[in-house]
């Protein structure tokens, strides 16, 4: 309902904008607003902000001195609402959330969104405090699984994809009734405390590493074992913004490449940047351990996003399926070996 209201609002704004701006030529923006979230998945954006890579790339592109405003937004709905309201230019988010919005807004002028880059891939671990739970087949209706949002969050969609592998495509939603919405920090406390109905937590770094070190908690599964390495988080933007600001969009892609190159070359420095930028106290050495995990990848080129799109289309989550991965992203990425 909220999304439909935002679409109607955007249509009205678009009509007014078109009438006022018809025939005028505007220079590219001098200020951009970028959102990031919590956790290791957002490391490339954390590095980009710390090293001011976007400012440097924009200047090299002839855009002069620009202002970059960073926002901390967590949760797909919050990010999508900000994007639709026109208060955000670039956003980092989970791939399923982006694909949902891309499919819903495709072809709608001034509401359409487009992917700007891939960003990160890590393994998601299903952790449990109940010794009997050693695989998905061991769960009963009373064994509750905590994740950030039921059915639609990144973790929820990945769990559905794993269930489809485990129980067959028609049973992809088999685990849904056992899931409950809980923010990662609260889920961690519940799992380690062991005094609630929460018997498992499907989570990402750093929470899974903290839980793995807790007494009585074990790992049930690793998402990479079922799905391989998929780009879990991407960046996207309003299509009207990237169309009107091609140099700034390219500067953002170049800055993302710079961030990922730094992470690949100097993981110790990347870990130190994350640790000092984090609002939650975290040890740089522990962050470095997470970055050095064989399943942690940071790349501008989207990898495996079509797996999400194909699954979500079969599950009925999206009505429009892209023919290829590049249909969802800016033309600047077309020559890259994405998937």
Written description of the protein model:
By secondary structure, this protein is α/β, with parallel strands linked by helices. 43% of the residues lie in helices and 17% in strands. The chain is built from 14 helices and eleven strands. The chain has a six-stranded mixed beta sheet with strand order 2-1-3-10-4-11, with helices on both faces. Helix 3 crosses helix 11 and helix 12 packs across helix 13. It is globular. The N terminus is likely disordered.
Topology diagram in text:
Elements: H1 2-21, E1 31-36, H2 43-51, H3 53-60, E2 67-72, H4 76-84, E3 90-94, H5 95-105, E4 113-121, E5 125-128, E6 144-147, H6 154-167, E7 179-181, H7 184-193, E8 198-203, H8 207-212, E9 218-222, H9 223-227, E10 233-238, H10 239-244, H11 246-265, H12 267-277, H13 284-291, E11 297-298, H14 305-314
Parallel strand pairs: 1-2, 1-3, 6-7, 6-8
Antiparallel strand pairs: 3-10, 4-10, 4-11, 5-8, 5-9
Helix pairs in contact: 2-11, 2-12, 3-11, 5-14, 11-12, 12-13
